[in-house]
Design brief:
Oligomer: single chain
Radius of gyration: 23 Å
Order of helices and strands: HEEEEHHHHHHHHHHH
Largest sheet: 2 strands, antiparallel
Shape: elongated
Strand order of the largest sheet: 1-4
C-alpha cells in the first residue's frame, strides 16, 4: 500500500497518518494505477485493538468490524479498550448497545464516559439520565464536549423529557444550544415549548436565537418568526416580541402533544 506521512499535520493538513510499528489499523483503500492507496490521506485509516473477533465468513463488513471492536473491549491495554469503545460509536449499530451498557456500568471512569458517548451515537436514549449527570458539571473536555455535540443528533421523541432535564441543569452554553436545536429542529415537540420560551432569556445570544427558531418551528407564531431576509440585528427585537407573546398568550395554552396546533 502506498502512503506518505509528512510529519507536519498542522502545517499542510495532508499526509496525516503516522503508521508506527506495533500499532494496528483498519485501512480504507482503493486501487490506483495498480497500487493500493488510502481513500483519504488523513481519514483513510483508524487505529484499532490488536484483539480481533472471530471471522464471520460471509457476513457484511459492518458486522465483521463490530465483532472485532467488541472483541477489543477485552484488550489488556486500556487505550486499546477506549479505542474499541470509540469505534463502536463510529459504527452506530443498535446491536452494540448491550455491550456498551455493560461498559458504562462496569468500566473505569474514562471507559464509562466514552461508552455513554458511543451508546448515544447508536441512538440509545436510555443513557440520557447519565448524560445529564455528566453535563451538569460542564463539558470543557473530552468526552463531555463530544457528548454535548452528539445531543444535536437525537431523533427519538421519547427523549424529550430527558432532554429538557439536561437543558435545565446544564451550565454550558454549548450543551444548552445543542439541546435547544434538537428540541426545536429535530423533534419539534410541543412539550418543549415552555422550555424553549424560558430560554428566550438565556444569557447567551446563540441560545436565545436557537430558542426563538425552535418556537417558530413548533408554534408557527408570527411574533417568533424572523423576516425572510433577516439580519443579525433583527434577532434580539424578535426575541423580545416572542417573549411578549409568550407572557401574554403562549403560556396559557396547552402544549401537550395531542393538542391541535391551531387555535
Amino acid at each position: 500500500m502506498r502512503f506518505v506521512y509528512s510529519g507536519e499535520v498542522f502545517a499542510n493538513g495532508h499526509d496525516c497518518i503516522d503508521f508506527r510499528p506495533e500499532t494496528y489499523w483498519t485501512v480504507f483503500a482503493v486501487e490506483k494505477n495498480g497500487q493500493m492507496e488510502m481513500i483519504d490521506d488523513c481519514e483513510g485509516a483508524v487505529t484499532i485493538s490488536s484483539v480481533l473477533g472471530p471471522n464471520l465468513g460471509n457476513a457484511d463488513w459492518l458486522s465483521q468490524m463490530e465483532a472485532d471492536f467488541l472483541a477489543g473491549l477485552n484488550d489488556h491495554d486500556s487505550m486499546a479498550r477506549l479505542t474499541s469503545i470509540q469505534r463502536l460509536g463510529g459504527l452506530k449499530l443498535a446491536s452494540s448497545r448491550d455491550a456498551l451498557r455493560r461498559v458504562i456500568e462496569n468500566g473505569d471512569d474514562a471507559e464509562s464516559k466514552w461508552a455513554v458517548y458511543a451508546a448515544l451515537r447508536t441512538g440509545d436514549v436510555s443513557v440520557l439520565p447519565r448524560v445529564q449527570r455528566l453535563l451538569a458539571v460542564g463539558n470543557g473536555q473530552l468526552p463531555e464536549s463530544a457528548i454535548a455535540l452528539e445531543l444535536r443528533n437525537v431523533k427519538d421523541s421519547s427523549a424529550v423529557p430527558d432532554l429538557i432535564a439536561i437543558l435545565n441543569s446544564a451550565p454550558s452554553d454549548l450543551t444548552r444550544s445543542c439541546v435547544l436545536i434538537t428540541l426545536g429542529e429535530n423533534l419539534k415537540d410541543r412539550r418543549a415549548v415552555p422550555s424553549l420560551a424560558a430560554h428566550l432569556s438565556d444569557p447567551t445570544h446563540h441560545a436565545r436565537y436557537d430558542a426563538l427558531n425552535g418556537l417558530k418551528n413548533i408554534t408557527h407564531e408570527g411574533a417568533c418568526t424572523l423576516p425572510p431576509e433577516w439580519k443579525e440585528q433583527d434577532v434580539e427585537p424578535q426575541v423580545s416580541r416572542c417573549k411578549i407573546w409568550w407572557e401574554q398568550i403562549g403560556q396559557f395554552r396547552d402544549w401537550t402533544p395531542n393538542q391541535a396546533s391551531t387555535f
